[in-house]
Automatic annotation (TrEMBL):
Name of the protein: Uncharacterized protein
Top-level taxon in the UniProt lineage: Eukaryota
Amino acid sequence: MPDNQRATYADVMKFYNLTKQRLKYELNNKDPPHHNVAEIVITKVEQIWDKASIPHVSHRRVQEMLNKYHKTFMNLLKPYESRKDSGPYQEKISQFKDESKKLFDICSCKCFFISQCQCEKSRKIPAIERDFLEDQRGPRGMIIAKVDEAESIKLQKRYIGRVDAEAEVSQI
């Protein structure tokens, strides 16, 4: 799965299948439970989103999204041999492939125009990350580069200030 871009549905399913095969090898060709594979995939997806400092939905919601997409994927595969030449089935597969190119969007803010976002503060996308997220939801030309040290220092100072303020309040 790419570390320098947000994952698409296709990326997530490829990583899911790769992880499943690795675990199967480790378990001497026994299929690993879905929840074990899903947990590894979800953790990786969340790490990538955290890397860009974009707030995302809860772990449980990411799990629901992955489970739903995986179920759709498996339902398409079940009747493949008997229906692979059928026109409507081919259309479903084509539609599924088109959908798989979309961003596996776990961002907590789903506002269409991010600049006009009315979400609560904890769900808002930092101004510095807005262009990147809009690009990832669309043409996907941008990538995550190296760590922005100046911005990291600002974030650390802000976090330390918040922790100090909470400590003072708890002493009262």
